[in-house]
Each structure stands twice: as C-alpha cells, then as structure tokens.
Design brief:
By secondary structure, the protein is α/β, with parallel strands linked by helices. It has one domain (about 5-255): Rossmann fold (3-Layer(aba) Sandwich), CATH 3.40.50.300. The chain contains 11 helices and 7 strands. Strand 3 (about 75) and strand 4 (about 80-85) form a beta hairpin. Helix 1 (about 15-30) crosses helix 11 (about 235-255). The two termini are about 15 Å apart. The structure holds adenosine-5'-diphosphate (ADP) and magnesium ion. Adenosine-5'-diphosphate binds near residues 14, 18, 218 and 237.
Length: about 260
C-alpha cells in the first residue's frame, strides 16, 4: 500500500528538500519504490536530483489544471526505484489560481488518487502555509517536519501545528505527524544541544531518535545534481539519512502491527 508523506515546515532553509531527497534515496536503496513530488516553485528537489528544466513538464502545475495525474510527468532519476514529478517557476502561479477552484483543498488528493505503484510518495512542500502546502497535507497520510537545530527552531512551529489541526478538523481527519526531525545539528555547539533538549521535552517521542548533523557533503551534493548518499555514501550526513530511513520503516511496521 502506498504511503503519502508531506515534508512540511513553512520556514525556508530548514532541510525539507534535503530530507525529501535523501530519505527517498535511502528508501529506494532498500528496494522500496519511491516517488518525489516537487511542490515548491523553486524546484530545488528537481535540481538536486539533476532533472533538467525540459524534463519538468508536465509538472504538478499542469496536473493541478487538469485535476488529474499525467503519467508522462513521472520522470526517472539516476537512482533506480526513485522517480520524480518535477517543478518549475510556473508553479508559483498555482498558489493564486487554486483560490478560484471550488475544491481548492482537494486537488492534490485527486491527482494522487490514481497512483498505486509506489510504496512511498514524498511531497516536498514550499516554505509557506498557502494552498500548495494545504493541498499536500490534505492528500497525505502523514507529515514529517524538519526543524533546524537553532534558537528559533520552535518559532513558527505553532502556526504549522495549528494548520495541521485545522486540516484534521476540516479536510483530512486521519492526518498524523510522521515525525519531527532535527536537522543541521552541531554537537559541538552547546546551543544546538539545548535546542535538541527543548524540542524533545516539548514533543517527546514524536521526535526521531536520529538527528541529521550539519555536514558539508550534504550542502555540496545538490550542485552536483546528486543525493548526498550518492555523492558521498560514507559522509556523516548520508549515514544519518540511512538511520532515519530505518526509523521510518520501523515506525511503519509498528503501526501495521
Ligand atoms: N545537514 C545539513 N548540513 C549542511 N547543510 C545542509 C544540511 N541540510 C540542509 N543543508 C543546506 O541548507 C540549505 C537549506 O536546506 P533545504 O533542504 O533546501 O531547506 P528547505 O527545503 O527547508 O528550504 C541548503 O543549501 C542545503 O544544502
Ligand atoms: Mg526546499
């Protein structure tokens, strides 16, 4: 059965795209069939996986207008088992255009209703709580929330939690939090450790045991159009994403018991 996971946080630069790419790659490496949906007009997930601009059509933008899946928009990546629906700047218009749709919150849900041949679908959300993120959350089983391990990590999280609550009340009662992921952790920095403690205190076992260290290989990889896991398999950051994939699978098995 497919599982749809939105990677969400309306803050930019917290590691949504990095987590989407590297978690998806880790799961593909253990023979799961995985689809990434790039739902950010910046198209960072597409770029990070080396998808050329010409290969990003039809994107989720065209699918929004047709209100259905266009299978020719599902593109291969360099990783066997990992596919992507790309995005480009056209998608910036969708945020406004969606407001005139009668079923504006349910468009992604109808698009993904027809997809059955994947174990996991990850939606890389844009840095806002607009209709693209709302559509992602309405279409998802769960959401994974990356938090940058910095002083302001928790700031803005209440707005996201409020949005999730409203979506549960109005559009998708079964939406759950997949997990909260601390990213860009610097163990030598005492502030980073304080933030980790604080987040764990607030959110308990919703927070993944795995944390993602700040790691230069992770930040270099996208400019090579490769996941960190392929760019440097043994880098601390790559290994952390493999650990995260294990935890995601373990939680999955627990929930299925
Ligand atoms: N663990 C990490 N270590 C070092 N750099 C990171 C790490 N995670 C993300 N980055 C870098 O931080 C920037 C923001 O990450 P990104 O995943 O694009 O965030 P978002 O999608 O939330 O905007 C990118 O340049 C990315 O390469
Ligand atoms: Mg991003």
């Amino acid at each position: 059965m497919k599982k749809i996971i939105s990677i969400s946080n309306q803050k930019g630069g917290v590691g949504k795209t990095t987590t989407t790419i590297n978690l998806a790659t880790s799961l593909a490496a253990i023979k799961k069939s995985v689809l990434i949906v790039d739902a950010d007009p910046q198209g960072n997930a597409s770029t990070g996986l080396g998808i050329s601009y010409n290969d990003r059509k039809p994107s989720i933008y065209e699918m929004i207008h047709k209100k259905k899946l266009l299978t020719e928009g599902i593109k291969e990546t360099l990783i066997p088992g990992l596919k992507i629906i790309g995005a480009n700047t056209d998608l910036a218009g969708a945020e406004l255009e969606l407001t005139s749709f009668e079923d504006r919150e349910f468009v992604f849900k109808s698009i993904f209703a027809d997809i059955n041949n994947f174990d996991f679908i990850f939606i890389d959300c844009p840095p806002s709580l607009g209709l693209l993120t709302i559509n992602s959350l309405v279409a998802s089983h769960t959401t994974l929330i990356p938090l940058q391990s910095e002083f302001f990590a928790l700031e803005g999280l209440s707005a996201l939690m409020q949005t999730i609550k409203l979506i549960k009340q109005n559009f998708n009662k079964d939406l759950r939090i997949e997990g909260i992921l601390l990213t860009m952790l610097d163990k030598r920095n005492s502030l980073s450790s304080l933030v980790e403690k604080d987040v764990r205190h607030h959110f308990g076992d919703q927070v993944y045991k795995t944390t993602i260290p700040r790691n230069v290989k992770i930040s270099e990889a996208p400019s090579h159009g490769k996941p960190a896991l392929i760019y440097d398999t043994h880098a601390a950051g790559s290994l952390a994403y493999i650990e995260l994939a294990k935890e995601v699978i373990l939680n999955q098995n627990k929930n299925n018991e």
